[in-house]
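Lab meeting tomorrow. Please check the following:
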Amino acid sequence: MPEELIPIVLFISIAAVAIFRPLTTRIGKVIEQSQAKKSLAQDPQIQRIMQLMERLVDRMDRLEDRVDFTERVLERQRMQAQLTRGPGRGDTEEQQS
């Protein structure tokens, strides 16, 4: 009777490993990723870098707004200059350049 149980136990063990190994490796990866995120979030140097990056993004947004405003003002001034000069005069000056 014990000789008959050896192949059965061996077969069940191999099947359990084949079935549960991908599941346990995936669970292990999820746990490692959550631990890595926690350690990154708790690291003060990384927190400081993240704050600096946020400040830089804010400054870039403000600079972009300023450049857009300046472009609009310059375009408006150029259009007003064309209106005061007249359409015929501006075209000949641009062609001569």
In short: DSSP finds three helices and no strands in the chain.
